[in-house]
Amino acid sequence: MNKITFIINGEKRSIYVEPNDVLLDVLRDKLGLKSPKCGCERGDCGACSVLLNGKSVRSCLVFAIEVDGCEIETVEGISQNGLSVVQEAFIEMNSFQCGFCAPGVVIATTELLRKNSTPTKEEIKEALAGNLCRCTGYTPILEAVEKISHHNKHNSDNTGGTNE
Amino acid sequence: MSKYRFVGKGVERIDGREKVSGAAIYTDDLEFGPDLLYAEIVESSEAHAKIVSIDVTEAEKVEGVVQIFTGKDFPYKFGLYMKDRYIFAQDIVRFIGEQVAAVVARDPKAAKKAAELIKIEYELLTPVFSQMDAISENPVLLHPDLGEYPHVPWFFPKENTNIAHWRKTKRGDLDGGFKDADLILEETFEVPRYAHCAIETHVVISKYDYSGRLTVWASSQSPYTQRHLFAEALAPLGIKHKDVRVIAPHVGGGFGGKAGVTMEILAAALATKMKGHPVKIRWSREQEFYNTYQRLGVVAKLKLGLKKDGSITALQHQLYWDAGAYVEYGANVVNAVGLSATGPYKIPAISIDSLCIYTNLPPGGAYRGFGYSEFLFGLESLMDQAAEKLGIDAVEFRLKNAISKGDTLAYGAHMNPNGLKQAITEVAKEIEWGKEVVSIDPEKVLCKGFSLLWKAPAMPPNASSSAFIKFNEDGSLNILVSGMDIGQGYLTVMAQIAAEILSVPPNKIRVENPDTDRNPYEWQTVASHVTWSCGNAVKKAAIHIREQIFDLMERAFKVSKDNFYLEDDGVKSHLDPSFYLAFKDFVVFGIPMDDGSFRGGPITGVGTFLPEFSSAKSDPETGQGGHPNVHYTVGAAAVLLEVDKKSGQIKVLKAVEAIDAGQAINPDLVKGQITGGLLQGLATVLYEDMRFNDKGRLLNPNFTDYKIPTTKDIPEEIVPIIIEVPQPDGPFGARGVGEQTMIPVAPMIANALYNGLGIRIKSMPITAEKVAMAILEKEKN
Known about the structure:
The structure holds two protein chains of two kinds. By secondary structure, chain A is of the alpha+beta class. Chain A folds into two domains: about 1-75, Ubiquitin-like (UB roll); about 85-160, DNA polymerase, domain 1. Chain A is built from six helices and five strands, in the order E-E-H-E-E-E-H-H-H-H-H. A five-stranded mixed beta sheet of chain A has the order 2-1-5-3-4, with helices on both faces. In chain A, strand 1 (about 1-10) and strand 2 (about 10-15) form a beta hairpin. Chain B has three domains: about 15-25 and about 465-610, 2-Layer Sandwich (Aldehyde Oxidoreductase, domain 4), CATH 3.30.365; about 30-125 and about 200-280, Alpha-Beta Complex (Aldehyde Oxidoreductase, domain 3), CATH 3.90.1170; about 295-460 and about 615-780, Aldehyde Oxidoreductase, domain 4. Chains A and B meet through helix 2, helix 3, helix 4, helix 5 and helix 6 of A and helix 1 and helix 15 of B.
């Protein structure tokens, strides 16, 4: 067992892991963070996405031992001080059906909008292309993100600032 | 404008906040503490073989292994419509991936390691991988005991063959119909198997406690049906229905794959031998592909007779289904198609033979569309061919032959009210049917294709729903039902139905996932029937509450109950405009009287629904006499494609689909079904391609090699159109739409390709490679 220390959703934690423990399993089973979901265990579906030092990664493809000294954010962290603009837009647009892919999509969208608050439709599609959804046909997900983008563009046109 | 307050409104999903915030609990998210055991299933490596021996010596030595089980520990059969399957293989394995043994261990890694060390010796039997081979002369018999298998009375297995069920529907003078025809067309179409690909794999945890009670937590579309099948299969252990409890948390996609019982029975059975411990099984993505259900494959042979004026004189439709090693659920897919393979057309002479055939491939079963996608591919392709041969426009041809209310169906009952012709007209208008489209790029072709759709719920005539509603102290409501929100928005729609009757807004209504100990009976969440069936039950429960409120008003205020009505979260009076009694002031605590006593008390409602007009009793040779389908949902769809002539690559520029929802309880959610269903349909046509090797092993059981669409694969534009011709026996006129949205996609793509390129593709999927090869072939000729 190896001790690792990292910041998870703003809190510093230290735990012991085996060298072959997968981050997804550690988040879910040792830390009780259930928002990252297991859909394929090989990086195809994106349901297990988390932000690792601000970049989205598939937590099923990361060994826990690799995150020593890193900062991780899951949907629990994004939700803890009230839901984000992204989450509210998804609710308003009925973007999800079964909801199993939702945490991964929230992560990918959050990453996108932090980098680029006014993405085009093509940029949104590109950013979310690694998150499989079998229910929605993606349309209501994309529409919600486009709505935020339009809103941000409108605000920045008027105020010169951006509004994530 | 809707004439209702809450019905017909695109209200926000009541489960939206939970799902987007990460709060929603799915089965795999449940915690069971340090005593949780994990089971790993040992699977057959052969498609057809006798089990000679199972050696567990090495596996037992692995640290953490608690116990190892084989088929002999569980000599019990199960099945929804036909009991042709044991919990674990007994002496014979019939497909690669079939469960042979199980390792129960303290942690999943130990279970997996031990499972790999179990040695199984097989004696190989000849496998059968094609349904046509399985019905050839003197085939290898997969189930020599077929004649003894228990099954529902409307199935007709053929002893000493591989035919598990043969549904025949015959009506009118078939020979005469073809004799009268000016044109006869005969074609064969093939549709392969497909996988559901819900992003959540099957997960189940089961615990048989020391008091003899079995609790199962499952990712499920069918908690009550599961409870029933567990109780039936485990009855030899003395387990009664009251001792079995199924709890179904949120489910991460179903599409039919989580209907009935598949791997859940493994955990239930293992738990009975591991008293006191919760036992968990989570299917890997691979297992999800080959050991749940797959969509059945089919070879469809059609013969169509027509008059010069475009009227149809006769249809012969023979469907040979590759149903896999066990057909306990899949046989009902075959049955459903056997009743409805006319499509939504008026046809005076009909002969349908739908044959459910055993093969040594994974079991076939329920998949969104329940066989209708498969037969519509051939039928709607052939209708286009017929229209072209007769020189009639494809849309005109369909308007001429479209079924109407009151027309006789293949099995002799009559068609329900429907907006099929309106759907055809509106889709044609939206896609600008008849207006020529030309690509500015000479390497590309623009083309349009059209298709009709119809589908009935396929269910036993006594499939039923029930609902409880209870008021809370503050006037909010809890609805208890046992359908599953597999994404379609069922929970929200049930809230809207109760809201409409009781005048309590949906955001003050909580509808939770079921627990069979607490929530009342629901058959299953399949067949696109829950909005209709459970919606009726919820509506009745709400009316039950309303009647109790009016009775209470009469008792408390000594005014006839006819004078009261419900509005704005309370009771109002026609006699006295100033009268208003808020629900929160009496629905639990009662109404205070002058003498200090109270009237009333906690108000709860109950409602049940069973379609009492439905019957599966009919002549086995003709299918005439019963009323097996409660109604059909119909619609039309069209597509505009851009096809690259060199690569065969297809881009969907526009897809239009009109569907008759009767009354869309929530139009936003209906549109969500259309966009989602269309893409799932497109996936089966353009991307998904299941490949087996010559030993019957699935070669691509993962999302790297079995491609489902991403954000970059969606149509450029989707236009959903909702038609509303009310279903007289539906809640506010509603009928289901969930499956129907995906079923017209294959033929409309095939028809568009013919219209644009003159190539007629008769097998699915329609990959770029297949299109490019067909173009080359055509150019050669």
